[in-house]
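Input record (one chain):
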Amino acid sequence: MKNHPPVHWLKSIIACLCLFPAVCFGQGIQFWKFGSASDSANQGLAKWVDQWNKENPRKPVQIRFFPFDEYMNGTLLTTAFASESGPDIFWASRGTFLQYAKGGVLADLSDLLTGEAKQDFSQPSIDAITVDGKEYAMPFEQEPVALLYNTDLLQKAGVQVPKTWDELLAACEKLKAAHLIPIVIEPQPGAYENFTWYPFLWQTGSDVTNPEMTKATFDSPGTAKALDLWRTLIQKGYAPRTATDITANVVSTPFGSGQAAMEVVGMWAIQQLQSAAPNIKFDFAPLPTPNGANPITIYGGWSQAINAKSKNLALAKEFTAWMWVKGTERPVEWCTKLNSKFSPRKSVLAAAKSFYDQKYLNTFRDVILPTARAEPRYPSALVEIIGDTLQAAMFRNEPGAQAASEGQKKIAAFLNSNH
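The corresponding structure, as predicted from the sequence alone:
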C-alpha cells in the first residue's frame, strides 16, 4: 500500500502552485512611488505592502521607488503609460492630475467613494480629484506651505521674522552680510516650484487665469511684483541657484544642514527635521505678504491613482481602499507617525487630535491652514508655461513685467487652442 502525503500537505502544494504564476510572471500589482526606499515614510509604505502580502498571498503587491526628479519632471511615467507598461498604482500631484485624467490614464474610482465613505472626506479634497462628476484618484493628505525659519540663526543675526516683502528682503540682506544663506526657494522648474510660488502671486490679487480657465489674467502688475520678488531672491544671491534634491526634502537643503535661515516649505518639514536634523531649532510663520496683512498660502497633497489599463484593476482598487478608506489606522499613521500632514478625512483628524495639538502642528492647524487655497489643477502645458516664466525671471533676469507679458501670450494661446 502506497503512502500518501497528508491532506494539509496537498493543500499547501496547491496553494503554492496557485501563487507561483502571480509571483514569477508579474501578475501582481505594481505600485510606483517617488523617493528613496530608505526614507522613513517609504519604509512605512513598504511595511504596509508586506502586511498586505502576508494577509493576501495570492494578491501580491510590489512597491518600487524612483528619484523624485525622474518621477515628476522626467519621462518615467509618461513613457511607461505610452508603452502600456505603466504601474497599476501610482501617486499623482494636483499639478499633474489633469494631465493624466484628460489623457485617459486614470481609472474611475467613484465606486470606492460612496455613501458614508465619501462624506468622511472634505469637499475640497473630493473636488480636487473629480472630473465630469467622477472621482479619478484617492486623496489622503493635505499640506499647507509656510515660512520655516531657524530661530538660532535669526536671533544671532538680530533679524525679526519678516511679515512683509520689504522686511523679507531686508532680512535677507542682513543675513547675507552675516555670511549666512538667507532663504531657500525651489530653483528647479516644475510643478513643485510653481506650487510654492503661487501664494506670492495670489497675495497680490492676481492669478494665472480666470476661475473658468477660459481667459489668461497673468499680465498684471501683481504678477510682475511676485515674479520680481523671486527674481530678486535669486539675483541678489539671497537664495541658492541650485539644489541637490527637490527642496521639499528639507534635510537635503542648506536649511537642513543648519546653513540657511529660512525656507519656503510645507508642514511635512516638521517630521523631516525632527527625524533627521534634531539639533536645529526651528519654527514656522505665515508667508510674508506685500503689506503684512491678509495672509494667503496654498495646500497640496498627493493622491493615489490607478492605471485605467491595469490588468489587475479590481485588485488595485481593493488594495487602495484597504490603504486609505477602510478604517483610520493606516491614514493616521501616514499623517502622524510617518509624516506631519493633515488628512482630508474627518474621522482621521478626529482620531489624531492629540497629534495636531502639539507645537508646530497647532500653528498649521489654527493659523496657516485657514488661510490656504487648494493647489490649482492646471494642464501640464500650462504648468510648463508658468515654470518657464519663473525661470526667465529668476535666472535670465527678465523684469517681472516683461516675463509676465510673455507668459500671458503663451497662456492665452494655449487657452485659445483648447476652447
